[in-house]
Each structure stands twice: as structure tokens, then as C-alpha cells.
Design a protein that fits this description.
heterodimer, A: about 350 residues, alpha/beta, 5-stranded mixed beta sheet, 13 helices, B: about 160 residues, mainly alpha, 4 helices
């Protein structure tokens, strides 16, 4: 061996030894360390206004006995793999959308069906939260469900103006799981993908528009790659979940479980449910003022045409439920009841534009 | 033993051909889709997903053949400077290690595919079941793993002859 190589080998070994010693000497903390995987950018309100304050609150309430580290922007698991990642223990906690994993949560699609009106994100979130607690669906029993919140109504944000059904024909529009069906029935060509992929798809022309909540204009910077907004609050709702690995939950001592549940419910009620209402409102105001987007309101006749075309989505859902041995009709009726009740309580998220206020 | 390696080579060659067809399929799909969008105003449903599936298969299936041809990127900046015996020792150490690693990858892919199948995961636009393609990629990794012992033996023989 030459001298230089000997020196190199020595340096490598020395560094290795130092590293191992440092690891061994690290003080072992008694706190429960948990990691949280989600797909929102670190600058997004989910991270800034929900996750970080919630982590702080949990830490404070437990006297530092639970410490959570957030991994935003798909750094721990991609959007569609987050739920599975929590089940297998890659992450202790995860936030994502049920509709990114089509077929995995068949029952929960009931909360995202087109034709059910949600006037605000809070009304949609409350409906889903209460509905899920009544249903106790088998499909999510492999994790501990901590939160369910919603986007509320969503709209078409496009590169070309869409004022009539005819203008939508053959346009490739980004969708989530269930809205793909809706868009297909309307004559568009849905391209389903999680939100983190959408900006690039819009920029490169893979899709000509996005069906989603208005907040993506700002939170995901889609204002840079779209020019028109067609208000279609009857088409869209998407649920988010926050879940915890079951073993991790069961391993927490009862007193910590109690505090954890209490603080989390507080954040669900006070922050998460209304998070999209606030975001949608500020994003729309910002888009109209700063980016001069053209906002298109469909005429009442046009709206009726759109809604009529999407009726089969609900029918397909009921048929699918029959295949699973579930009374889909009853389920649908119950969700409509809940939606009506919570719409009454929380009728307006973003001054009408969010719900039906101005469009119907 | 020799016969087994020959069989692995043959299979890897076959997989590469299939992978090649998948790659060609991706190109045809994309081009036809652009034509459909521009001239007929109605692109195909699910092209985005099919491109993803076919790309996964074409990469998964070309891994083994690429290893046989020793076309994978290898960083031999230090290895090149080692004496012959050192090179042989290194190959004997890394060969089995890569073999077990690739078998582990295969196992996890199979478990992942099984999970996708059990939970009924389908692609969101076309509702195509995902697990089929994960099984195919797992097959690619299995054949890739099986090429490793052959490569190790070849390298060691080549080294000791000189």
C-alpha cells in the first residue's frame, strides 16, 4: 500500500470510530420520539398553521414526553404511500388523502361523491368525521384515526377558458381518485395524480387544468401555471386524514394517550376543519387581485347540465357497495342528512364563492 | 452450475426484449396521444398511467441484462488501484452481499405487491390493479439477483488467470 492510501485508510477508520463513539455517548432521552409524514410543502398552511403548532401543543401538554418531527413535502413517503407507510411503521404518523389510493378505501368515497353539496370545508369535514365515527369502516381499522378534515368545494383552474360543457370536451384535467370518474362523465379526460405532481403536469402541458380547492393557486403556486377559474363547487370534495400506527398508539401509556387525543381533537376542531375555508378565501382574493385571473361563473342552465351528467357517479357507488355487501343507498342518505345538518350550521366558508352562494 | 448461468443469461435477454417493447410502447402511446389531442381533440384516457406502468416494467426487465453486460454504473476509482488479490477479495465480499440485497428487494416487492392486491389498490384513472406491475418488477429483480453469482465467478476466474 502506498503512503497516501495508508493515510486515507487511517482517516476513514478514525472518522468511523468517532461516529460510533458519538452515537454511544448520546444521552438517551425518555421522551417518545414520533415522526410524521405528509406531502404538503414546508411553506404550506398545513405545515405552518396546523402541524407545527400542534406538535408544540402536544409537547407542551405532555411536558416534553412526546416529541414529534414533521417530514413535509413527501420526504418520508410519497403522498399515495403515506397510509401504507403508517401501517408498516415507516412513519408513526401520516397526513394524506384517502382518494390518492383508489380502491383502498371504497366506503369512504361516499364523502367525496359529486352531487352532494358542501357549503364549506368545515361542513364537509364535520360530515365526514361524524359519518366515519358512525360507520367505523373496516378499511381504516389498521391505524388509529386522529383527524379527518376536508377541502370543501373545489373548482376548475385551467389554462384555457371553460365556460360551457362543450369547452370541457377532450381537455385533460388533473383529478383525484373519485373525481376522475366525474370528469370522464362530463367529457373531459381525467389524469389522476397527487397534488405534488400537478404543478409540473400543468407547466408541461400534460394536463390543461386542475380540479381542486382554490388554495392550490397560492399554497402550491398553481396561479403561475393557470389562467382561468371556473367555479364548480358541486363537483368536488376531498378528505384528508391524520393517522397513527396502531402499535405506536397502543405503546403509549394511558395518560399520554388521553392528553394526545385531547390536544389533537382541539386542533381538529379549531384549526383543521376550517383550514381550507380560510385558505380558499385568501387564495381567491389574492388570485383576483394579484394575478388577474379570470373568474368564470357558470349560468344556472349550464350548472344543471353539469350536475345531471354526474348522477351516475352516485349510482356507480351504490352498485359497488352492493358488491361489498353494504347498503349504499342508506349510507348515501345518511351522508346527505349529515351534510344538510352541517351545511345549516356552517353555511359559508369563503363568502359565497366557496359554496353555492353565487353560482346557484 | 454453468447451465444455470446460461439459463439466467437467456432469461435476462428475453426480459430485455420485452422491456424494449415496453419502452417502444411508451413512445408510441405518447406520440399517438399528442396526435389525438392536436388533431382529433380527444386524447386517450389513462395514458399518464400506462406510461408509468410500462416504464416500470421496461426498467425492471432491463436490470438483469444490464448486469450481464456489466453496463451498470460502477465507481471503481479506488478499486482500480487495488492489487489483483485485493480485487478478487473485494468481488468475493460484494458479490454475495449484492446477491442477498437483491433477493431482499425481491422479497419486499413481493410483499408490497401482495399488500396492494389484498387491499384492492387500483390506479386512480383507469382502475388498473397495481399489483400486476409490482410482481413484474419483482421478477426483474429476481433475475437480476440470479445474474450476480455468475458475474462474481467470472470476475474471480478472470482475475486469477492473469
Amino acid at each position: 500500500m502506498r503512503k497516501r492510501e495508508k493515510i486515507f485508510l487511517f482517516v476513514v477508520l478514525a472518522l468511523l470510530a468517532a461516529g460510533v463513539t458519538a452515537l454511544l455517548l448520546l444521552p438517551k432521552s425518555n421522551a417518545v420520539q414520533l415522526n410524521l409524514a405528509h406531502f404538503f410543502p414546508s411553506s404550506h398552511p398545513v405545515e405552518k398553521d396546523l402541524v407545527q403548532p400542534w406538535i408544540e401543543a402536544i409537547k407542551e401538554a405532555t411536558g416534553g414526553r412526546i416529541q414529534i418531527t414533521s417530514y413535509p413535502g413527501e420526504t418520508l413517503a410519497t403522498a399515495a404511500e403515506i397510509y401504507n407507510g403508517v401501517v408498516t411503521g415507516i412513519a408513526d404518523l401520516g397526513i394524506s388523502c384517502f382518494s390518492y389510493t383508489r380502491g383502498r378505501f371504497p366506503l369512504l368515497e361516499v364523502f367525496e361523491l359529486p352531487g352532494i353539496t358542501y357549503l364549506s370545508a368545515r361542513a364537509a369535514g364535520k360530515t365526514a368525521w361524524e359519518g366515519i365515527r358512525e360507520l367505523e369502516p373496516e378499511e381504516i381499522r389498521d391505524t388509529r384515526l386522529l383527524m379527518v378534515f376536508a377541502t370543501g368545494p373545489g373548482h376548475l383552474m385551467t389554462r384555457v377558458p371553460i365556460e360551457t360543457l362543450e369547452e370541457l370536451q377532450g381537455k385533460e384535467i388533473r383529478a383525484t381518485g373519485l373525481t376522475a370518474q366525474t370528469l370522464e362523465l362530463l367529457g373531459a379526460v381525467p389524469v389522476a395524480m397527487p397534488q405534488p405532481e400537478t404543478y409540473e403536469a400543468l407547466a408541461r402541458g400534460i394536463v390543461q387544468g386542475n380540479l381542486g380547492p382554490l388554495e392550490v393557486l397560492q399554497g402550491w403556486r398553481h396561479a403561475e401555471v393557470t389562467d382561468y377559474i371556473t367555479l364548480t363547487p358541486f363537483l368536488y370534495n376531498t378528505l384528508f386524514f391524520m393517522v397513527m400506527n396502531l402499535e405506536t398508539w397502543n405503546a403509549l401509556p394511558p395518560d399520554l394517550q388521553e392528553i394526545f387525543a385531547k390536544v389533537t381533537t382541539e386542533y381538529l376542531e379549531e384549526v383543521a376543519f376550517a383550514l381550507w375555508d380560510r385558505q380558499n378565501e385568501t387564495a381567491l382574493a389574492w388570485a383576483a387581485r394579484e394575478t388577474k385571473k379570470r373568474i368564470i361563473t357558470l349560468s344556472p342552465e349550464e350548472t344543471v347540465r353539469w350536475i345531471e351528467l354526474t348522477v351516475p357517479v352516485q349510482e356507480n357507488f351504490v352498485a359497488k357497495m352492493a358488491g361489498l355487501g353494504v347498503d349504499g343507498d342508506r349510507l348515501l342518505r345518511r351522508v346527505k342528512e349529515l351534510a344538510e345538518y352541517y351545511n345549516g350550521l356552517y353555511p359559508s366558508g369563503a363568502k359565497g364563492v366557496n359554496g353555492f352562494g353565487e353560482t346557484l | 452450475m454453468e447451465r444455470l448461468f446460461k439459463a439466467v443469461h437467456k432469461v435476462s435477454g428475453l426480459l430485455e426484449k420485452i422491456g424494449g417493447f415496453c419502452l417502444a410502447g411508451v413512445m408510441i402511446l405518447v406520440v399517438v396521444n399528442i396526435v389525438m389531442r392536436r388533431f382529433f381533440g380527444h386524447p386517450f384516457l389513462g395514458v399518464y398511467e400506462y406510461v408509468g406502468f410500462l416504464t416500470a416494467v421496461s426498467i425492471g426487465f432491463s436490470l438483469a441484462s444490464c448486469a450481464v453486460k456489466e453496463a451498470h454504473i460502477a465507481v471503481d476509482f479506488w478499486v482500480k488501484r487495488l492489487p489483483r488479490k485485493g480485487k478478487i477479495a473485494l468481488e468475493l465480499a460484494t458479490g454475495p452481499l449484492s446477491f442477498f440485497f437483491l433477493i431482499l428487494v425481491t422479497r419486499h416487492l413481493l410483499a408490497y405487491a401482495g399488500n396492494l392486491r389484498a387491499t384492492g389498490r387500483v390506479s386512480p384513472t383507469t382502475e388498473t390493479p397495481f399489483h400486476i406491475f409490482v410482481y413484474l418488477v419483482a421478477l426483474g429483480f429476481l433475475v437480476f439477483a440470479l445474474t450476480v453469482p455468475g458475474t462474481t465467478i467470472k470476475t474471480v476466474r478472470r482475475g486469477s488467470k492473469r
